[in-house]
Design goal:
mainly alpha; 0% strand; rod-shaped
Amino acid sequence: MSVSSFLSSIGVKDLLERCGIALLIVFTVVQISPIKVNPWSWLGRLIGRFFNWLGKKIGKAINGEVIADLVEIKSKLVELEEHDRRQDETRDRDKALDARRRILRFADEVRRKEKHSKEHFDNVFEDIKYYNAYCEKHDDFANDRARISIRIIEETYERCVRENSFL
């Protein structure tokens, strides 16, 4: 009996069943034998990789909208941080301008010979300290407007300490 006559006498269904059983027996024998060929392990890894790949594809499809929203939120966060930084700079500049106004006003009061308490002087010295620190950090900020007034305040303070002439 030749191979072609044998194959023609068996139906396709029978052939597949017999081949499947034969492969099952061969895989099992090879798996058990000491040879390092593990067809079941290989088949398991192959199926695992397929499901891992499929899961990633499905995850991207399901989470695509969420990922797009997350990217949009991150870009808005960067914009907000930049806006916050600009506001901080504006606040610091306004605070320095307010300190300069208080320094100039206090110097004008000293020139008019108005008396002040030591606490008032201490408060103005805090303004002077902040103002000078801001001017050192910001070269573009005009500092020459209060230098003379600061010197007048310091000299008056020293005189008040020597003479004990605070309010």
